[in-house]
Design a protein that fits this description.
It is an enzyme of class 6 (ligase). This is Adenylosuccinate synthetase, chloroplastic. Its cofactor is Mg(2+). Helices cover about 30% and strands about 25% of the residues. It folds into three domains: about 80 residues, no CATH class; about 325 residues, Adenylosuccinate Synthetase, subunit A, domain 3 (Adenylosuccinate Synthetase, Chain A, domain 3, Alpha-Beta Complex); about 90 residues, Adenylosuccinate Synthetase, subunit A, domain 2. By secondary structure, the chain is α/β, with parallel strands linked by helices. The longest helix is centred in the middle third of the chain and has 18 residues. A ten-stranded mixed sheet has the order 14-12-10-7-15-6-16-19-23-24, with helices on both faces. Strands 17, 18, 20, 21 and 22 form a five-stranded mixed sheet that branches.
Amino acid sequence: MNMANVGAIRPVKIFVTDIATGRPRSAFHGTHAPAKSAPLPLQRLAGEIRISDRRRTGLKSSASRNVKLTCRAASGAAEAEDQYSDLQQVVAVLGSQWGDEGKGKLVDIIAQKYDVICRCQGGANAGHTIYDETGKKYALHQVPSGILNRKSTCLIGHGTVVHLPSLFEEIEKLEASGVSCEGRLLLSDRAHLLFDLHREADGLREEELAGNKIGTTKRGIGPAYASKANRVGVRVNELRKPDLLRERLEVLFDDTKKRFPSFEGDLDAELERYAELAARVDPFICDTVEYVNKAFKEGKLILVEGANATMLDIDFGTYPFVTSSNPSIGGVVAGLGLAPNKFGDLIGVAKAYTTRVGAGPYPTELFGDLAEDIRSVGFEYGTTTGRPRRCGWLDIVALNYATQINGYTCLNLTKLDCLDALDEVEIGVGYKDPDGNVINYFPADVDYLSSLEAVYETMPGWKEDISKIRTYDELPANAKTYISRVEELTGLPCKYIGVGPGRDAMIVQQ
């Protein structure tokens, strides 16, 4: 082949495909060039792709014999058809703020092309709102957001705490809407059960706290994880052992009555109820650790849906105003059983502003008319509780803190359109203490954190409706400036930009 006829340097996209399954393993960008000194060490010679640096493919050298590499132009109609094709085999979508960032929407979009969609921590305290292709709204709490992809398998991992009655209510609503869960929803045999007594204990505990309430969803999450940590909880597989179930429930009822004398529970009624639920849930029960690792070995595409968010993490969040699990990457690994080195893309989801439900320090919180305007435009009311969310400006200090914990590879900046009407937009870039000292780290001491004032950068608004825009180039100049500044401050690309609630309202930067 005459190299002189190859042509000028142009962008290409290289797709790594598993030969055995035909499924994509990863994709990355490079250049098609006639010279060996191309920026990415790749040449195309007589239709063959040669890679001299496999680190850029995300593949180990031992895997190279099992894949084929193909190349196409990185622009044009084919690229527009599939803007998510460069995602790797295992993707995690994680909340980077205080929850409610809009994770479910991106999960729903990506899940249309993925085989296995997983939840790995939390429980019915999570609320993910998604829309199908017709615009129909679904509010999910325990079922993974990938359930709308009829070809996918949805998996509830062992790191979750599961309230079976509400899970079946959710399943029934989906079935009534024409979304079948039969054979598509798997529940870990290692997951812990959350009983109504846990919910009652949650509410009673909040009442005790009086003026110092945590602001929990009262869904029983904390007490259920406490039962797990105290080694008196009930795992899903134990539903198949009626005698053991009675023994465990007797302990839980006794403990709850001792702790809360006003608690009134009917043990026999609960055992009768769970005898029926045990038969009903049995077809869903699975060794999900074995399942997900087998799926990985078979080259299936795996998507992990985080619940809650890093700033509510029981270790990294604003303790004690946190959830009772680890919504960060460590909780994903521990709650799913998939090794860290198997993860490819880690996408951090962040609103273009911030919200928080419940009590706790919130450095960039807004008050008054501006907070109410953002709450109204963004419809900032909890999916799970219906409570109005506290609203504030984007907090870069908190976002960078979440980034260093999780190792995000890119960001999904959501609800940018909710800032359309503002004359100015502010970004919190630091914290000032009572002595006037500016810090740029997120402190552990919540009293100290509560004493801090946010330091802001003010940027001009774009004063234009962007909800119908679908490409980055079409965005107003000031909107692009805002996005670029977020990228500069975090060191991460805002690859996915949400401009509305619908599945199509997502701009993908290539």
